[in-house]
Amino acid sequence: MKRGLIVVDLQNEYLPTGNLPLTGIEAAVANAVRVISYSRRTDVAVFHIRHESGDEDAPIFVKGSSGADIQLAVSPVGHEPVIVKKHINAFRETDLKQQLEAADIQEVVVIGAMSHMCVDAVVRAAADMGYPVTVLHDACATLDLTFNGVNAPAAQVHATMMAALEFGYATVKSVDEYLKA
């Protein structure tokens, strides 16, 4: 099966200097670099996703801002496509599916940010479209969340999302497990 790597929203906005810093983003990006390098060496197609806000007054991902730029460490090279999205789900109102089909991709690997939002959405959508999906949990990052007075630390948010994805949508592995296989 021909494999594609989907790199979700590894943008400057999520760095400690950005407007939406994520817990563990540096470690996730370091692992993403390893996966992207491996993909390039082994002819796994790499698809970059970049979120841009549709609202110029948005506090994050403003089109043309440095926060909306893909992090330098994981920048596209050559003809690697960049799919620009305005919604959480990278398949919604983009040509991601068409690009996967044009490259004859039959299974996808997903890395990126945020675990509980855009990673979750693209994994579930890809699975619903029939793609076998693998998520590399330590090449993803998220942040602390609060709901109804309950504070959930990023580690718990991330673990909950990975458990939910593994339960019904994807195989979840570490980068080391993936690279050894």
UniProtKB/TrEMBL annotation:
Pfam families to which the protein is assigned, alphabetical: Isochorismatase
Keywords, comma-separated and alphabetical: Hydrolase
GO molecular function: hydrolase activity
Hydrolase in keyword set: yes
Domain Isochorismatase-like: 5-145
Protein known as: Cysteine hydrolase
Organism: Pseudomonas coleopterorum
